[in-house]
Amino acid sequence: MSLDAATDDLRASFKLAMRRFPAAVTVITSADQTRRHGMTATAVTSLSLDPPSLVVCVNQASLLHDIMLLARRFCVNLLRRDQVALSAAFSGALPPETRFGLGEWAVSPEGISYLETAQINIFCRKAAAVPYGTHTIFIGEAELVNVHDPVDPLIYQDATYCFSVPAETKAA
Ligand SMILES: Cc1cc2nc3c(=O)[nH]c(=O)nc-3n(C[C@H](O)[C@H](O)[C@H](O)COP(=O)(O)O)c2cc1C
C-alpha cells in the first residue's frame, strides 16, 4: 500500500471514529467593525473552570474565521432539539446575510448577536487564537452565561441530528 493510500485509509477511519462522538450543536456568533456572522459548530468544548473558558475550532476557510480573528468577543449559542432548521441555515442552507432572519436574535451591549431561544448563551472574550492545520482553535473566557430550561440540547451524531435520553430511562 502506498503512503498516500495509507493516509487516505487513516483519514477515512478517523472520520468514521469522529462521527461516533455525539456533539452538542451550537451556532457561534461574532462581529467585527462592519459585519456580524454566525456559523454552526460542534467542535466546542469546555477548557477550564478557573478561569471559566472553552475552545471552539473554526475552519480557516470560513467567513466566521476572518471575523473572529478581528473580533474581541464571540458567543456560543447551544441549540435546542427543535432548532434543526437553524443549524442547517447557519451551516450553509442560507447565505450569511439572510441567516439572522431565522430565529429570535438580540444584540448584546458589546454588539454580539445571540439567540434568545437557545438552550444556553455563553458570551466570551477572545483570549487566544491558535492555528493548527486547516483550523484555528479559539479560546474564549466566559463573561456571561444564560441558561434556559428544560435541558434538551440538539445533538449531532453519525451525521444525524438527535436528542439525548438518560441511559436509565427507556426511550418511548
Ligand atoms: C452539525 C455541523 C457541525 C459543524 N461544526 C463545525 C465546526 O465545529 N467548525 C467548523 O469550522 N465548521 C463546522 N461546520 C461547518 C460549517 O458550519 C459550514 O462549513 C459553514 O457553512 C461555513 O461557514 P460560512 O458559510 O459561514 O463561511 C459544521 C457543520 C454542521 C452541519
UniProtKB/TrEMBL annotation:
<feature type="domain" description="Flavin reductase like">
    <location>
        <begin position="18"/>
        <end position="163"/>
    </location>
</feature>
<dbReference type="InterPro" id="IPR012349">
    <property type="entry name" value="Split_barrel_FMN-bd"/>
</dbReference>
<dbReference type="InterPro" id="IPR002563">
    <property type="entry name" value="Flavin_Rdtase-like_dom"/>
</dbReference>
<dbReference type="Pfam" id="PF01613">
    <property type="entry name" value="Flavin_Reduct"/>
</dbReference>
<protein>
    <submittedName>
        <fullName>Resorcinol 4-hydroxylase reductase subunit</fullName>
    </submittedName>
</protein>
<dbReference type="InterPro" id="IPR050268">
    <property type="entry name" value="NADH-dep_flavin_reductase"/>
</dbReference>
<dbReference type="GO" id="GO:0010181">
    <property type="term" value="F:FMN binding"/>
</dbReference>
<dbReference type="GO" id="GO:0042602">
    <property type="term" value="F:riboflavin reductase (NADPH) activity"/>
</dbReference>
<keyword id="KW-0560">Oxidoreductase</keyword>
<dbReference type="GO" id="GO:0006208">
    <property type="term" value="P:pyrimidine nucleobase catabolic process"/>
</dbReference>
